[in-house]
Amino acid sequence: MRQKKVKKKSIWKELISWIIYLAVLFGAVYLIVQYVGERTTVSGESMYPSLSDGDSLIVDKISYRFVDPDRYDVVVFPFQYQEGTFYIKRVIGLPGETVQIMGGKVYINGKELNDPYGYEAIRNPGLASNPITLRQDEYFVLGDNRNNSADSREPSVGTISREDIIGRAIFRIWPFDSIGLVAS
């Protein structure tokens, strides 16, 4: 009889131990996904050749809590007109700068940007055909595939507020033959 009580107690003790373990595990996973990092998938060719359609990326969501985005960082932000849709673009213009696109090239504060990521002349400057002066919390972003990208040149995207930037794409995990850091 005593042995049955001991077994019952140890089973309950073990069960409670597992429940606590799983609760801590799920809590840690939630905190990591919510505040530290997240996986996302590239949809479309707007970041070609740096990123391709179907690439899976890890997004660092914590570093921008301590530092501001730099020029050429690849950032993730929500599309303002469609819930659950996120854009992945490269930071080109920083707060306080004036951005303009003329003759297929990007100019920052009147000087041509030596941009290693845009691989062809920009055919449509869009909103940037006139100078755009960024406020202290705004960024100008472009896709690397400049002639096939919805980015800050379009009114539906426009400049990106600092608070809207979710994080920085830092690591490609798929496809396996392209695993590695995202160039910035």
The portion of residues forming beta strands comes to 25-35%
Main sheet specs: 8 strands, antiparallel
Shape: elongated
Could you say which structural class the secondary elements and strand pairing correspond to? Answer: alpha+beta
Q: What is the oligomer described by this structure?
A: single chain
By DSSP (H or I, 4+ residues per run), the number of helices equals 1
Rg from Cα: 23 Å
> CA-to-CA gap between the ends?
69 Å
Query: Fraction of residues in helices?
Result: 10-25%
Keywords:
1 helix, alpha+beta, eight-stranded antiparallel sheet
Question: What features would you describe in this structure?
Answer:
Helices cover 19% and strands 29% of the residues. The protein has one helix at 2-36, and strands at residues 37-41, 56-60, 74-78, 86-93, 98-102, 105-108, 111-112, 132-133, 138-142, 160-161, 167-174, 180-181. The strands form two sheets. Strands 1, 2, 3, 4, 9, 10, 11 and 12 form an eight-stranded antiparallel sheet that branches. Strands 7-6-5-8 form a four-stranded antiparallel sheet, with no helix packed on it. The longest helix has 35 residues, at 2-36.
